[in-house]
Amino acid sequence: MATPPYHLVHFRVSHYNEKVRWALDHKGCPHTREALLPGFHLLRARRLTGQNKLPILVIEGAPMYESSRILAELERRHPDPPLYPRDPAARARAVGIEAHFDEHVAPDLRRLFWSTYLDRPRDCATLAAAGFSGAARNAFRAAFPVFRPIFRRNMGADAARVGAARERLVSHFERLESEIGPSGYLVGDRFGIADLAAASVMTAIIRPPQFPYPLPEPWPPELVALRASVSERPGFRWVLDMYARHRGTSSEVAASAPQS
Could you report the per-residue pLDDT of 209-224, keeping only the tens digit for each? Predict the structure, then answer.
């Protein structure tokens, strides 16, 4: 089999990375995946793109980063099944919803999620290295005293900002719920970019059964309590429904040598 044109460099646990995985799977794009350890990912990310963030999608040898740009390029290359509405006004609204969840909701939920792990070195190492070797888990654990303050700073996971994120959590769900239309979708009458983006972002604390990389058990009690605090909301049930109906099967194929 020829090497697929797409190679995804990603974090298994991340909701930003889940956006790109879901889009690749939804469009049935064969691709390989290369999971990296947080912190240890920097050299690979910088070598590919000159910046530190994942996901990175290598498209026919050309690396691209930022999930919104990647999804727009996948839509250009693979217009069916469509994720973006054809109507200009509907498309603008869908992209606006995607941007809101990427820029305002995702950072808050990431702070909340990681705040339940950062004071638990063993749990954090188990989470970050899930799917890797025992040696990788030990390496992450050994480096964790160095990584932890960097993670806190990069995520804005200090006590004040985590507290503010917790206070905004209900408003994030209210915004999601206000966008759900009579069809059950956020824009129009079919699944699209707004639904995929919002549902992916909300997985940071919801973790539907169809999320491709389950969290190691047991979860931190603080995360269990955080999830339970919103589990009766319509937006919570909406995310579960989007995953149950549309997450589909993986288009990942057998790994090949890393592309650069």
Answer: 999 999 999 999 999 9
